[in-house]
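Justification of resources, computational component.

The compute hours requested in this renewal are based largely on the per-chain cost of generating structure records like the one below. Each record pairs the submitted sequence with a full structure-token output. That output is archived, and it is also reused by downstream analysis tasks.
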Amino acid sequence: MKAGSMKACSLKSVCIAMIVLFSLAACATRPPVAQGPLPFDQAVEHATDDLVSQSQRLPGFIAQLTTQGVVHDPTLDAESGQQTAATTRLDAKVAGYLGSRHKQFAVLPFRSASLSKAEYLLTSTMARERTGGTPALRITLALVDLNTGIVVAQAHALAKDHLLDHAPLPYYRDSPVLVKDQVVEGYIRTTATPRGQRGDALYLERIATAATIDEATDLYNQARYREALGEYRSALAVPAGQQLRVLNGIYLANARLGQTAEAEDAFGRVVAMGIAYRQLSVKFLFNPGTTEFWVDPRINTPYPMWLRQIARESVAAKACMEVIGHTSATGSPAANEALSLKRAVEIRRKLTAQAPELGPRTQAIGMGFRENLIGSGTDDNVDVLDRRVEFRIKPCKSG
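The structure output for this chain reads:
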């Protein structure tokens, strides 16, 4: 116990009584272990209760009589790194539940100005899981001390995946690439970090920039593209803003504003960063069962530009790579593997038509649905990332 706390206790027995009462309160508030998947909202409440219960047992918490500020970096789907309608529902549920049930925490907006006022950072993920053949979601919450970067509490709950909307939010729906770089993966790792250990350093070092990116993404999701572009450019202006999701946001906003030259330049930078990261996944959509691009011009119009920039940046980087086709989880494994290979061959053909020197440096591979990120088999915008073409950078063979 701190010296100040000891002075506040004039009698030893009073101090002991306070500690005992606090311990009992902590035990009483800790939720029982859940058996099997719970309804979604109930699972979120269960995990939130557990997180708060753990935080109340932190050293010095008994002396903290004021409300503790917490900022919540929005929930991500752990496999895809996306924000969806379901992750947004989780965010709203956590904020509302903390506000009504656990008023010792004040949830502040995830903005740069709030970070200086908050004591804690909340991160959260959801991941698909099957329990006895029943689809479920593993919800994970982590509470991070903003001063030390230590994960001071972590909680899990298993939720039923019933009638949940997993459609990605507009930014992720419109993104041409899988926006899951080192910073996003650092967020996911931080949420998975056991209590008492430090969260991912790269993610935590960039937390102020993450707040700016979140504000820009909110503006994009509201179709306020010019304002979003300004925020993304503000993020890019600082070293910590050199992130895939920032460059991708600049591409998307410029494309929405009809600024084609600026959009192409931004997409080239997205490709260059993906190559540097050694992995670039692009959402080329094909007509069902074919190697022809999706017929809707609203979808396929930018594809020639994408291919041009992928070829140009691959040549500039002298990259060797595997062109890997992926499919959704519909149909037989053999049929999907064959189809994914044909699509990879077609993309490779289009690239080498742009830059013949890529011929000996590229290899087409069909993966079928063995590396699905979503795995829903819905064949719509929910599992569009499962129907991607991936450019996986590999060492070039000498000689």
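The chain has four domains: 1-30, 33-170, 206-277, 279-399. The beta strands are 68-72, 76-77, 105-108, 120-131, 134-145, 151-160, 279-282, 320-325, 362-366, 389-394.
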